[in-house]
Amino acid sequence: MLPINCGSHADYQNFVVTNLRKYYPNPDALAKSTWDIIERFWNLDLSKTDTLLADKYSKFGPAPRTPSCMQRSYLLSIDFKVTSLTEWAAQLKINPLYAILSGFEVGDTPGVGTFYDFINRCLWDSDDNHMSPHIHPLKTKVKKPKSKGTKADSVEKITVAELLPELEKTSFPLDDQPYASLFKIYQKEFLDVSVNKGLIHADSLVIAGDGTPVVTSHRERKHRICKCKENGITDCNCNRYFSQPDCDIGWDSSRDCFYHGYDLYMLVDSQSDLPVFSHYSCASKHDSHGFLHAWFRMKSFLPNFKVSKVLLDSAHDAMPYYQYFKREGITPFIDLNGKGGRPSVYKNEFTIDKDGVPICPCGFRMRRDGVEIAKGRMKFKCPKISKKNGCLSCTCETPCSDAKYGRTVHLVMNDNPRLFNNPPRSSKEWKLEYNARTSAERSNKREKLDFKLEDGRHRSTKMWYCRLYHIQMLQHLDAWDLPSESPLKKMILDVA
User: Do 40 and 18 belong to one domain?
Assistant: First the structure.
């Protein structure tokens, strides 16, 4: 192929204006929602895509389609809710608006094969469409939980305490990942732009994490490759051939049913609801493991991003998390799941409530009285102390201390960083910060409902990653501010 003529963003904008004047001289003929998409893509500069993908093409042969135009067209197909590339290629031929916004001449648009060639050549850096081999052993089935609305128990053969140090020592070079080129485009053209616009604070990120099921098919497709059945053995544990080797069967707690597909783990900036990093795991992967796989890849791929706080749900309530975040200088906000337990008695017959607040021998929750950072402990005082006639006195019927100030308990955070954390779970500060964890759920809703992630119906991890990352690109694009008055409409009307 010949060297690519990259052009510039200004060339693309002039092309769009010229053709909109020709085919749509009356801007009011298009719906307001359509104009919103037109203006966003008219302002979207994808010139770096041509530079990033320049080495994917040969210097000899016929001239290819411009990579930025192919990229923009794929983004448009998702934004216009066309879930099939075959259908999109047909729409480009009959709808001038789609061709113009993509950057193609009307009547000269790429076919479906060109789109798949672009994905294989430029966006997926592997000859294999999947991350794991088709032939592998049968996996342990997830068991249906006893109570409705709860997540299934983990089927992992390795604990969080064993997995965390293993991944911490593992190197994840970006160039070794099959989606490396896809991630670089996402980072350079969208994530970094959101950082530059002040939507994401890369030097003090507050990350919210959550896993969500992604259904890829109604059933698991596999077949035997052994001859056990011919020999009368119907329940053998021999390897099987799986058509989607990266998927398996998991439990969807929100829909209360089993499903076949992926567990998508999202790491989201809680202040802007924008995605930072995502990772596909098999559906049976527990969130406590899914977070670790996504977290250490994010740290490797985005070394300049500094995380100050992490917001996670009760599926991540494990002591190794708290110990790791303390070493890294990150403040964890993790809800308790009730399975980790708490000390029955903590110093002098004081018990600990479910949120880490000490309870006095009379059964009253003690009152928080600050944190002594230098000594690494939290201070709680008697809740029955009141001020009468200018003096402090205890109003408890059976006081446990003769001091005017009442009984004081110090909780040493090193004793149990899971229960005794700063700020305490009982404080308004903790609850206010933890409420922002729903940003991960809002981001998942945008991907699955607004951009119809699951409607792709792909059969390869390659296509699922391409669809996911392009949806994340559109999430960033939608968050960028547009001018209050449309310069594009003015340019069309002035000449018309």
Answer: yes
